[in-house]
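Recap from last week: sequence in, structure out.
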Amino acid sequence: MEQIRAIVCEHLELEPDQLSETSHFIEEHEADSLALMDVLAALEKKFGITIDQAQFARMTSVRNVYEVVSESASW
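Predicted structure tokens:
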């Protein structure tokens, strides 16, 4: 979870204390789709996985990203 948080913070240009597990990337942090695609690519590279593009819409918070990554990685 902390690795995912670090990736999200880096790509959304947030400090760790600005991002909770449930804060919404777009509504609370004004993330745009390009930044979120960067997060997706970084996650795929970091964990050696491929995330189905259909899952992109679910990736709205750190907790949701963790769920998508864990499903994609079969954790």
